[in-house]
Amino acid sequence: xxxxxxxxxxxxxxxxxxxxxxxxxxxxxxxxxxxxxxxxxxxxxxxxxxxxxxxxxxxxxxxxxxxxxxxxxxxxxxxxxxxxxxxxxxxxxxxxxxxxxxxxxxxxxxxxxxxxxxxxxxxxxxxxxxxxxxxxxxxxxxxxxxxxxxxxxxxxxxxxxxxxxxxxxxx
Length: 171
Prior knowledge:
By secondary structure, the chain is mostly beta strands.
């Protein structure tokens, strides 16, 4: 907001705020196993010389486990959750005040393996899955005086699965 105060008076009804927070912890349990915990949060709000406010937020957390079976084979297992929200709100005129929203949740899992068959040949293989829950949108009245008719689009979901195999050979 302090930067917006430096702008001409035409922008005096503007506001903005945001933050990002990223954290990670790594723990090497022994010479064959390492655990990684990671998280991310962010939130942005802004209103640029109008009564309409915009907001975005992201939340992410995951855990990763790296395991060395031997000097030729290792794996990385990953599980995580992600959440994204977007909203628009207008409340200056109580009669047509509204809140619009949209959101996506996803839950994921991956198992990746690397096998060093020889100094010139590496084989990669694995599986992955992502489950999506989507809130395509909703419009709600903002306050008791709003005449906005609620409109909520039904939630949707999807499942994405993958399997892969790759071989890299240096000639």
